[in-house]
Every structure is written in structure tokens, then in C-alpha cells.
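Exercise: predict the fold of this chain.
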Amino acid sequence: MANLLLAIVFLLVLIKSCDILVNQATSLAKRFKVSNFIIGFVFVALGTSLPELIASGHSMLFGHPSLAISSIIGSNVVNLCLILGAVACYKGFKLSTIDAHYNLPLNFIATLLFIFIAFLGNQTITWISGVIMLTVYFALTVFVNDHNHVVSQIKYHKLNWLTLGLSLVVIVFAGKFAVENLLAFATEFGVGETVVGAIIAALITSLPEFITAMVAVRKGNAELGVGSIIGSNIFNLFFVIAICSFINPINLVGFGDELLLLAVATLSSVILALSGKRYYFSRNEGLVLLLFYLVFLYLQVHI
């Protein structure tokens, strides 16, 4: 269990270091007069998804693609089902028209497009697929330009080059030690890498999304919370996995059930948003999403 505790500690250090790095990076981008839209959409998504990127990148480098992919898919399921469901059960919230008509459907279309690209390559994502996925990601970034609603939420911090450099160093080593201890835990207790990635790593690396969504809804700004979840999910699928494919080809054989559940859960979020009380996520909608997460957990443990 010592390995698991160390992994959790290093993952928490990774999350905090990523937060510091993104704060400094946004300040640096502002100094170089990068547009507010690019800072808003790209850096907000990067801020909540950087832990997944670092942890998955290290897993690929260590030759453990199953851990990398399971943590990414698991993180997306956590974002959509556990976080959105838990927030709705805690405090019901009304979705904006933009989220209901554009962003949630876009998230579903993006998920289907990812699955299509994966099966187009015989369930293997090569660097060529990675290039296509990065192109799709940046195309989606341009598409949501007119509907972006997170730019005004950015807080700029004072740029400190030493802090920027140290946070980058800590991120590299924290990610390395977190993955090493997760693998050691899996080996010691005979737990499958996909279970470790989809449950443990996914839950911990999704903490930024959970905190963002909970605080946003509590303050009456559900748009920010939902927007961060959608942006993070698209970033995970099309940016993080694309980067991983440049390290080694990614074989998705064996992840069919997880991808299917992710697609169904994503479609359900659209249906739930458009049905019943107009654009409102109540406890009932939250319970449906939590049920999907329980099904996901069952698949990981028993299949």
C-alpha cells in the first residue's frame, strides 16, 4: 500500500505544480500579447488536463500504453458522469443555451469522431492518426471561438521565471514517480493496469475539473463548470492521446466497452440537457450520470 500512497502524493504534487505552471504560462502568453481567446480556451483546458497529459506521457515512455489510455478514458468518464452527476446532486443548475445547443452536442460528435479515427486505423492510433487528431482539435478550437465563455474567468498572476522553471521540473519528476508507484502497486497486488488507470489515476487527475465545476456551480456560474469539463474531455481525446501516439503507436483493442460507455454517457448528457425541465440538471439527471459511472466501475473490475 506504500506504493499507492506515494502515487497519490506525487499525483497531488503534479496537480498543484501544473496549476502553478499554467498560471505562469498564461502570464507569459499575455506578455507576448497572445489573444484572449487562445489564452482562455487553450490554457483553461490545459490547466485542468495537464496532469492527464504528463501521467499518460510517462506511461507511454515506460512502455505501459494500457495505463495511459485507461487513465484518459477513465478521466473523461469521471468528468462527465461522476463530476457532473455529483455536482447536480449537490446543487441543481441550469445550463446555458450555448452549452445545451452547441457544447454538449459538440462533445458527443467529438467522441464519435475519435472512435471513428481509432477504428479507421484498425483500432491503432499511429503518429499519422495523431496528426489528424491534433488538426481536429485546433479546428474545434476555431469552431468554438464564437461560443467561448471562459475567457473572462482568467486571473493573471505575476510572471516569475524561477517559479515557471521550477514548476516544470517538479512536473516532470512528480509525473515520473507517480507512474512508477502506480505500476509498482499494480504489480504487487496483481491489479490490472487498466483498472489502476481508469479508477485511481483518473479520479485523482480529475480533481481540477471537480474543484472547478463545484466552485463554479456554487457561485452560480454553471457555464464555467460545464465548459471546463467539455474542454477537458475534448483536450484529453484529441490532444493528449495525439501526443502519446508520437511516442508509441496506441492499440485500443480491449477498450471497446469503455469507449462505447463513454459515447452513450456523452449522448445521455445531451438528451438529459434537452429533455424535462428546459436545460436544467437536477438531482434526477445527476443520479442517471452517477449510475453510468457505477456501470463503468463494474466493467473495470469484473470484465
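Check your answer against the key: The beta strands are 93-94, 124-125, 250-251, 280-281.
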